[in-house]
Amino acid sequence: MRIAFEWGNTVETDDYPSPDGNNNVETDDYPSPRGSKNVETDDYPSPRVIALWRRIIIRLYARCGAGAIHIALLLASVCAAQDRWGLEKPHVWARDGEAAVTLVQDGDAHRIRHTGKRDFSFGGFARIGAQYGDVFEVSCEVRVTDAALGARAELSAVLRDADGKEMAWTWGAVTCPATGEWSPVKARFAVPRGKAKPDPNRIGPTPDWVIESLEREASVSVEPRITGWAAQVIEVRGMAAARTGALFRNGNSLDWPRIASFENKTLRVDVDNKTGEVSVTDKDTGRIWAPLPQTTGYWLKAQARTQSGAKTDHWGTETWWSPQYTLVNPQDMSEFNVRLHLVTSNSSPELEVTLEGKGAMRPLAFPAPFATRPGDRLIVPMNEGLGYPVDEEHTGLWRMYTYGGHGLCMAFFGVVEDATGAGWMAILETPDDGAMDVRKGAGGLWQAGVAWDPCKGEYAYPRKVRFVFFDKGGHVAMCKRYREHAQQTGLLKTFTEKAKANPNIDLLIGAANIWSWDGKTALAAEMQAAGMGRLIWSAGGTAEEVKAMNAMPGILTGRYDIYQDIMDPANFDKIRHVHGDWVTEAFPHDINWAAPGVPRTGWEIERKDGDGMIPCAVICDAKALPYARKRIAEELKAKPYRARFLDTTVAAPWFECWHPDHPMTRTDSKRWKMELLGLVSGEFGLVCGSETGHDASVPFCDYFEGMLSLGNYRVPDSGRRTQVIWDEVPENVMKYQVGEKYRLPLWELVYHDCVVAQWYWGDYNNKLPAIWRKRDLFNALYGTPPMYMLTRKMWDEQKDRFVASYKTAATVARATGYSEMTDHRILTPDRAVQQTAFANGTTVTVNFGAVSYTMPDCTDLRPMEVKVERKNRE
């Protein structure tokens, strides 16, 4: 292994000396031309003046060299004299229109009354001219005297570049407390790079230090304001902005080499000494995975160090190097340390990146996303899984958290080359406050990077991500590497293990999930007589119905339950429906607070008068168990269910709680959610189901309703209009939900033998008759059972179709339920013919296309058909 570092001295201060000789300008005020440190009557240069200075600097460099530029920059900084600003023309704006917001001045305070449902803003500052590195503080006192459930407000600033284009809408945002008392609020941030344009008249390349100077000199405007969401009354007083200093004004970091490098036999890692950005060269493939320039917005502050050594853990014996450096986040001026471990393990070349900071934290994205190129595919474990070609337009791609089922269901993502299967994956080893940050890069190509959220507003603990690089294998190699991770971290618990503790698990394997409220016992008997032998009866029933179905072989009786949403009983007479499973007795003392004094909102219920919706509150996860234990124990005395489905528990994110009586981090929330699921599957010995799915719950949960249904591509309002049958197929449903060009069985490749994946109860096999057959084929290919929501009338009219669907889907699910999915192959260039393989020797080939496919045994697989082969049996 070779490592080469040529770091300069640590540079933490500004090069411009202050009057007292202290170079740390971060704490010094800018001097004004009049000798005052608070000159509110001085004007900051306009964008035109700054543009003029830019042209002068370029000409000076071309004709006079570097010394003249430093003089010009010093003169420009002297002209930028004003350092404090106040409100000039207070005004408000609301997205719901002028009538939704009013502004009244009451003494030294401004009272904003917002009655709309969407966002609003309060401002009144002139646009403040600034330069790259300027440090600002925006402060005020606020008092929220009335607020709707879930309402919130923030103090922040709008940033615009020299052309007036918005760079950021809520830069440096800080949440305003909703305690009902006057509370100080302060946002502290630095100005990021503006637009740097080298002189087109200059012949030859522009040196880095000139680009650096131009970036720092480029005009950026700052406009402080308060933004809010939902109905509330907020009072504001003493709102002011101050320029308190600057960081890296003259570019001392340019004394350092631009790139520091270290490498082993398989990887070379380059660190940008300006931004801390990380690039990786995979020596096996020759591919350089590098971020686009200036994507992070962070500033390298402290010098790196290196350590080396060897260790042995569950990955094998690793040799590692550990460069370390400190970055500054300009959105809040917080600092975080970065440590890199280049690992040569027994499985694949890997790079560990660890972040650690202290104190307050804002969401940050680091390391920066690697740029992509045409032919790459973004691998995303959203529900069952998707592969997005990076050079196509896509809907439904955005920042996705790793701490809940409606984000990423497994804590990894990556990019592969379609042609070779080479690529990389990121495994978030601390996923409770993590995310995948998806964005478009150069040329409109999609790219994805790691993002981190605060833990109760702070860094709190080290964050770690492991980058794994492959020279082949594509999404299958990713999933198998993640299965190793799951096994080593205790997430992998197979049905073979689960069935030892609960024999009723066997009733789950290969069982179709039935949602029907019509003559339950009689309908179940007819289904079994027609050949649908294994069923989960999810719609509950009377004590007599449950006992009768328990006596029928092959039926797993269950019911719906929920321990999240809770409506204020004062609203019961205003809403169309009062849910029988709401734990009303938990309101208001056990509800979750999304911020101090701000109750968290949940599912919305239609008003009787038709005038919109009223949101539920959310029970704090730390308080849910006693309610569940009491309800389930009492009910089982009369109704001996064998299964129980807990709605939203896994689908919803891990929620922080700011209630002073039961505060909770996301990690705490996850623990309490898992204890709730463990209560069902452990203490009560029931087969446990939950919504959507997340791998944190694999040891406690046995089936997921919604894992097969890609959450971003279901029919509109599928969670409310569950029984509505759709005759027309929406474009996104056809493209992604049943789109073989995009769908991937990522979940099955990791957890097929641990948890049963099902469709969503508002997105079941027979929901859209036009694509019913295609859903059945995906069930067969993935070895998963079907789901039906039906009435007696539907059964009588389409009995043959239900039976045929069951035989296509459920048969393979039963045959493979206890087996790992070992492979998934794309057999044709149009991705129409696909094949899966399972550990027990079962192979499933499906033709989604319009023409026949010739199998290796020379037989034809016709369009929309499936072939199941069994080489041996377990």
Topology record:
Elements (H helix, E strand, L loop, with lengths): L1 E3 L42 H18 L1 H14 L4 E3 L4 E4 L6 E6 L2 E6 L4 E5 L4 E3 L3 E14 L4 E10 L4 E10 L7 E8 L17 H10 L2 E10 L2 E15 L12 E5 L3 E6 L5 E5 L5 E2 L9 E7 L2 E6 L2 E6 L2 E6 L4 E11 L4 E9 L6 E2 L10 E5 L5 E4 L10 E2 L10 E6 L5 E6 L5 E7 L5 E7 L10 E8 L3 H15 L6 H7 L3 H4 L3 E4 L4 H10 L5 E3 L5 H8 L4 E8 L2 E2 L26 E3 L2 E2 L1 E6 L6 E6 L5 H15 L4 E5 L18 H18 L3 E5 L11 E3 L25 H7 L8 H6 L4 E3 L13 H11 L4 E3 L2 H25 L4 E6 L6 E6 L3 E6 L5 E2 L5 E2 L3 E6 L4
Parallel strand pairs: 33-34, 33-45, 34-35, 35-41, 41-42, 42-43, 43-44
Antiparallel strand pairs: 1-14, 2-13, 3-6, 4-5, 5-13, 6-12, 7-12, 8-11, 8-13, 9-10, 9-12, 14-15, 15-16, 16-17, 18-21, 19-20, 21-22, 22-23, 23-32, 24-31, 25-26, 25-28, 27-30, 28-29, 29-32, 30-31, 36-40, 37-38, 39-40, 46-47, 47-48, 48-51, 49-50
Helix pairs in contact: 1-2, 9-10, 13-14
Written account of the structure:
The protein is built from 14 helices and 51 strands. It is of the alpha+beta class and 874 residues long. A nine-stranded antiparallel beta sheet has the order 18-21-22-23-32-29-28-25-26, covered by helices on one side. The chain has an eight-stranded parallel beta sheet with strand order 44-43-42-41-35-34-33-45. Strands 2, 4, 5, 8, 11 and 13 form a six-stranded antiparallel beta sheet that branches. α9 (624-638) packs parallel to α10 and α13 (772-782) runs parallel beside α14 (792-816).
